Q: What sequence folds into this?
């Protein structure tokens, strides 16, 4: 029969063993978790710094090729970081170093992180560094020009801080265990009576923390014998919370980067479900937040993009493609990168919107084509007439004066075209600094309208100016305002036949004054209305060549520079009505 005393000691010993076993389980879990977390946090920080170094050092490396400038760049960046930073050529030569003379550094072409950076986009390694005499964590990323790797940016940081942090946690756990064991043995009798309750409390704490309740605290008043154990356990929980908080901070930084990126980012799993989609990608495809169950096809509705992902997943290689989305007809540059993780088949898709770039290229080509077309006719005419004059036409009084006059007319036409182009370019670039002042728009309309009355009557066209008695002043530049009115009246005269009618009117509407120039001319086809304010656009170019095709474009840019809007209404064969609005001057609002 076991004596009560012996039984108590057995219970006490069993309690101590159970205590050490519980703490051992938690310690092993926490030490591994904390160590992995610290290393992951350190490597993520080094990767961010390497990407930052790659972006900042790329220009001095490529554009100027100045070693001194590159050295200053990496030194300035290194001053704000405790990391060891290097820029490395593809052959392994160190080009710049923020801590050492790059010429004294050995060739690192065989370093594992360098090869991984070139092959996979990022390289990581932890090893002892002979140069610094300590173990370091290395992270390397490629420096890209377009799609070509031109150099490697590498950052490193000693791992001693990680080991020190882990050792402190282990020491804390060990000390807590020793204190708890000593107290348990010293007061064995009392511990024996309360062992069951104490073990349950500690076990519950382990379970709750393992389930994610990191703020769970063990009651330190459970018993005198387990007080130190509870305190140590709670200290361990505090350390775990701090570590998780650090990891959450890094995760939030990554989330902030994804949320503010201009490029779209989508992560697709092996089941072709969209695991992650950042706001830029959601905007690109016109969708809202997605869940893990949302299929990639239902987000993008694009077969070519799906094929790109399938090809990247099957070959385990990065794939590139330029795709025109079926929704919105936007042009994107897509890169599909397979991710190396436990769930094979996960692909990272990055999307760069090229629509505006392509539109700019198209506009540039159209601009060159339009200018060439507009200049070709007068230049050809001048050349033909000059050749005729050279071949004896100068001695022929029947043609020489006419040809000289026509040459001058064609030269004036080209001069007008060039001047209009310069003026339009100045307006569109924002270099025309217009001083907007309160302007009596009614007086401007009357003056400009009276100038065209005689011209219109000489062509058999009736002109009518209709203005209210009280019209508020507008915020405008006088010369530009007169230019808008003249261009619209010129346009109306040009396309209104004899016995036609031109009218100009204005009316105040809320905070703007709307001016309207109407005519009973030939009108504009419906399909031409959306393009009527574009540069060089002419209706029925084959039948009419009057003007440069820039007048209405100039009108639009001047009005928009004033904060107003332009509009047109027309029906072919019945006439047109052009309108524009200008904001009412502040002095007229009171």
A:
């Amino acid at each position: 029969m076991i004596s009560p005393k012996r039984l108590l000691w057995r219970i006490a010993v069993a309690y101590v063993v159970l205590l050490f076993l519980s703490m051992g389980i938690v310690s092993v879990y926490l030490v591994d978790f904390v160590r992995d977390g610290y290393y992951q946090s350190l490597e993520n920080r080094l990767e961010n710094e390497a990407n930052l170094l790659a972006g900042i050092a790329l220009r001095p490396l490529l554009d100027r090729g100045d070693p001194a400038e590159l050295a200053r760049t990496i030194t300035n960046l290194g001053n704000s970081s405790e990391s060891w930073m290097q820029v490395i050529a593809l052959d392994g030569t160190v080009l710049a170093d923020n801590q050492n003379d790059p010429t004294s550094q050995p060739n690192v072409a065989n370093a594992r992180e360098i090869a991984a950076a070139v092959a996979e986009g990022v390289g990581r390694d932890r090893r002892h560094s002979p140069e610094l005499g300590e173990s370091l964590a290395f992270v390397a990323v490629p420096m890209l020009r377009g799609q070509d790797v031109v150099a490697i940016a590498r950052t490193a940081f000693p791992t001693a801080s990680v080991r020190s942090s882990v050792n402190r946690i282990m020491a804390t756990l060990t000390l807590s265990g020793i204190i708890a064991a000593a107290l348990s043995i010293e007061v064995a009798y009392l511990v024996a009576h309360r062992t069951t309750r104490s073990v349950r409390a500690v076990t519950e704490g382990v379970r709750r923390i393992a389930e994610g309740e990191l703020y769970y605290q063990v009651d330190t008043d459970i018993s005198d014998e387990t007080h130190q154990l509870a305190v140590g356990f709670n200290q361990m929980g505090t350390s775990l919370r701090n570590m998780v908080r650090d990891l959450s901070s890094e995760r939030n930084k990554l989330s902030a980067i994804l949320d503010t990126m201009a490029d779209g980012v989508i992560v697709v799993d092996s089941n072709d479900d969209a695991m992650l989609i950042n706001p830029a990608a959601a905007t690109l495809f016109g969708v809202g937040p997605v869940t893990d169950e949302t299929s990639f096809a239902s987000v993008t509705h694009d077969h070519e993009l799906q094929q790109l992902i399938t090809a990247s997943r099957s070959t385990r290689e990065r794939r590139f493609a330029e795709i025109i989305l079926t929704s919105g007809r936007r042009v994107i540059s897509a890169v599909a990168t397979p991710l190396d993780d436990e769930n094979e088949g996960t692909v990272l898709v990055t999307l760069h919107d090229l629509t505006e770039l392509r539109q700019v290229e198209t506009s540039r080509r159209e601009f060159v084509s339009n200018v060439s077309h507009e200049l070709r006719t007068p230049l050809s005419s001048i050349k033909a007439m000059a050749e005729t004059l050279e071949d004896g036409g100068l001695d022929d009084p029947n043609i020489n004066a006419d040809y000289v006059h026509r040459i001058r007319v064609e030269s004036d036409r080209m001069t007008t075209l060039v001047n209009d182009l310069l003026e339009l370019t100045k307006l569109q670039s924002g270099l025309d600094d217009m001083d907007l002042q309160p302007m009596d728009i009614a007086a401007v309309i009357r003056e400009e309208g009276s100038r065209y009355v005689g011209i219109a009557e000489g062509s058999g066209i009736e002109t009518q100016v209709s203005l209210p008695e009280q019209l508020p002043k507008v915020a405008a530049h006088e010369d530009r305002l007169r230019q808008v009115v003249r261009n619209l009246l010129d346009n109306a005269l040009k396309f209104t036949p004899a016995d036609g009618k031109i009218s100009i009117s204005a009316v105040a509407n809320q905070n703007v004054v709307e001016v309207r120039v109407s005519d009973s001319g030939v009108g504009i086809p419906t399909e031409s209305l959306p393009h009527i304010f574009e540069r060089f656009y002419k209706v029925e170019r084959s039948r009419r060549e009057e003007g440069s095709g820039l007048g209405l474009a100039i009108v639009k840019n001047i009005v928009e520079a004033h904060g107003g809007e332009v509009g047109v209404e027309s029906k072919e064969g019945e006439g047109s009505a052009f309108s524009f609005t200008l904001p009412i001057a502040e002095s007229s609002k009171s």
Q: What stands out?
A: The chain has 15 helices and 17 strands. The first helix runs from residue 4 to 64. Confidence is low (pLDDT under 50) at residues 1-8, 541-545.
